[in-house]
What we know:
- The chain contains 6 helices and 7 strands; from the N terminus they run αββββαββααβαα.
- By secondary structure, it is an alpha+beta fold.
- This is Negative transcriptional regulator, PaiB family.
Amino acid sequence: MYIPQHFAEHDRAEILRFIQANAFGTLVTVEAGVPFASHIPFLLEQGGTLTLSGHLAKANPQWQHLAANPQVLAIFQGAHAYISPTWYEGAGVPTWNYTAVHVYGTVRVIHDTAWLQTQVERLSHHYEGDTPNAWIPSYPAKLLEAIVGFEITIESLQAKYKLSQNRSAADQHNVMQALEASSGENEREVADLMAKHLAKH
């Protein structure tokens, strides 16, 4: 990912928090020179080895890409918003403020039924939570045979927080004000991110 230095995020704890908060990501592989992507939820593990895990439908050919070439990319995106040059005091051009993390690593494909059962249970619990009516998965082994698991050992993290760091303090203030006044949830979230991030630098 192209990351100018003023947009680079290096705080590892923040990057991992970001992945957990935006865990519905994009798994990217290349097969015969052609990119292929699946949009799926991931689980981040922060034990001795940093990993991402998930599963694909067995009908999805991407698991075969993983088996053939274990180098993969997972992309996570956070809030984003259009930035108008009319919000600047000086000259400028239209742009986009956004946050994104790219994860590079080596993957292993998993067919083990016990692992898949645990994966589905953990994923469901993560999103269902501890509410009284939380759905609890109960799959016969035959259904689990319809999915294929994977685990990515993370080798590299790249994070880009493009939040007007390259503009003057006055321009940053104007951008935040304009975004805060928007009716869009994404815009207001970007304004909040700008306020928190720029305050740290």
